[in-house]
Amino acid sequence: MLDTLMDILLFRLHKRNADSKTPKLTTGTIVFGGLIRLSLIVIAIWWISDVWEFHQFWPLFSLMVIMIVFYPAYREMSIFSDAVDILKESTLCGSCKHFEPSAQICSRYDEHITEEHIPCEGMDWEPHS
């Protein structure tokens, strides 16, 4: 948990573990990282405006939110959508109606899908209608 928190705070790009069935980069980790960084910025700006009596902090706050919250989230979301596109093309699950691309999960079995792990092994595959 601590190494995941450090990854989020230090803007490290997440890579999937070869030995894990769960992908590290999901929509939830992107949003969670953004919320953590936003809360740290709010606390820092609150401290700056209180201690240094810098009451016109809105331009600084806006720049910090764009640079520290929105841009890294956008960058990770583009990497995530590229990974989902590759997963859709390389597995049978990408054309199944039970595949949920925002979470890389099979909604029927409630398990994450990777290139090495297909939850139903192709037995319950149903095409999109």
What would you note in describing this structure?
Strands 1-2-3 form a 3-stranded antiparallel β-sheet, with no helix packed on it. The radius of gyration is 19 Å and the shape is elongated. It is mainly alpha-helical and 129 residues long. The protein has 2 domains: 2-90; 93-129, no CATH class. Helix 2 runs antiparallel to helix 3 (58-90). The chain has 3 helices and 3 strands. A hairpin with a 4-residue loop joins strand 2 (105-106) and strand 3 (111-112).
Show the helix and strand layout.
Layout: H1 2-9, H2 27-51, H3 58-90, E1 99-100, E2 105-106, E3 111-112
Helix pairs in contact: 2-3
Overview features:
three-stranded antiparallel sheet; single chain; 129 residues; mainly alpha; elongated
The number of distinct structural domains comes to 2
Please, what is the average pLDDT? 81
Give the number of helices: 3
Could you describe the largest sheet, including whether it forms a barrel?
3 strands, antiparallel
> How far apart lie the N and C ends?
40 Å
The SS-based structural class is mainly alpha
Oligomer: single chain
Question: What's this model, at a glance?
Answer:
The chain is mainly alpha-helical.
